[in-house]
What we know:
Blueprint: H1 11-14, H2 17-30, H3 34-45, H4 52-60, H5 65-80, E1 83-93, H6 119-132, E2 136-141, H7 150-162, E3 172-176, H8 182-190, E4 196-197, H9 205-211, H10 220-224, H11 226-232, E5 238-241, H12 249-267, E6 273-275, H13 296-309, E7 314-317, H14 323-332, E8 336-338, H15 367-376, E9 380-382, H16 386-389, H17 394-402, H18 406-424, H19 428-443, H20 447-463
Parallel strand pairs: 1-2, 1-8, 1-9, 2-3, 4-5, 5-6, 6-7, 7-8
The structure holds S-adenosylmethionine.
Amino acid sequence: MEKYDLHSNKASCFMNQQKVDENLQKAISFSKDDIYINEVIKKAKSMQGLEPIEATALLLSNVDIIEIYKLAQDIKDSYYGNRIVLFAPLYLSNYCVNSCTYCPYHVLNKTMPRKKMSQDEIKKEVIALQDMGHKRIALELGEDPVHNPIEYVLESIDTIYGIHHKSGAIRRLNVNIAATTEENYKLLHTAQIGTYILFQETYNKQNYERLHPRGPKHNYDYHTEAMDRAMSAGIEDVGLGVLFGLHNYAYEFIALLMHAKHLEELYGAGPHTISVPRLRPADGIDVSSFKNALPDDVFLKIIALLRISVPYTGLIISTRESKSIREKALKLGISQISGGSKTSVGGYSTLIEPDNAQFEISDNRTLDEVVYWLMENGYIPSFCTSCYGNNRQGVDFMDICKAKQIGQFCTPNAIITLKEYINNYASPKTKELGNQMLQKELEKLSDRRKSSIIKRLELLNSSGEVKFF
Length: 469
Ligand code: SAM
């Protein structure tokens, strides 16, 4: 039996199941200890993050939720300001050899129409995304060595980065493909991907194996060690996530934070992002057969506590969630959202969405509607991709974030890219509100900062060039 070791790159050590259980038991007992909880709150107020046990004790405690929400909001404001980064998923192929019991793309689903896009079809999809105003996308593919080999992924990345339709460009391509070899991660790194994203689905090994009964994804250790291989291969930004609804939420929460801590200890930078997907209805998937559904109030508490526990990690919420949940979640620490999304292969460029979607989405608004709504709620919608181009990744990004300096880059870049969106894509209503917001945001800045941004806005207006800070 392997022993827990935070610094090992073996899942049986850093995600030792006995240790997760042990930590969870400690958190349960601390959650009833008022003195302990008060100490943790005091520590949380220093905005330096929390240990997995501390955060989980708070999650399970009866602590005043208003206090937790307020703290999460303060942390978000102080590290990230009011900008929200936007992206969209792009599904390239739904061929899959795995058997994930919650996903309609599983190999045994013979009624799911299978589709793998050609490079020409990908171009059409990317043009449709560019015409909406997107600059950042997350590539999604099923795992299938025959239909979706790494060569196909690399060719598609090349195609996507090469498309410049009108004022459009995809400037950051995040990739969500199944766990793969270190060699393949090196290839993805060389292809200049942004973040490598892989959801753990569940950290509980026994349940993981039951939920993934066959196919390469059945191998828990290989899946769990993926981020270690990715980071060893040179990918500095990785994105974690669990699919809430598959297992007990407190177990997932503590294990997720243990994973984040492991990456930070071993590679100097924790995860660049954490996503919080919840299980959704899908073709042939009966969500009610999963007994761990996460209620909204606990979901929001988890988001707030992630913000408090890992202040330097971006938090992502997708269109799996409704407008009203997203509105609440934004206040509690979410820094990135998807907008105008389709979860089908070929869904952006066709008038009638193909009947091959991965799951139902709850927020069906257009990107323009999402942009408008963000501004109405006081957020600057940001299409910024500058960290990637300016080598602000991995440890470097974390250092800037820890020093609370990302606002120096993010806010001006959000202003510039919002103006780019207004100039090229916004509806008249969004344009009007956007220009008012830009004025207001500029007024908040020092004269020096303001004049340097105005120069770049003038450059943008005259030549279309986006010059990032
Ligand atoms: N192919 C990659 C892999 O095998 O790991 C992942 C790509 S998949 C398109 C992205 C994610 O969607 C999965 O990791 C899973 O968490 C999530 N997903 C699958 N079925 C879902 C459902 N019914 N509701 C919500 N999310 C789901």
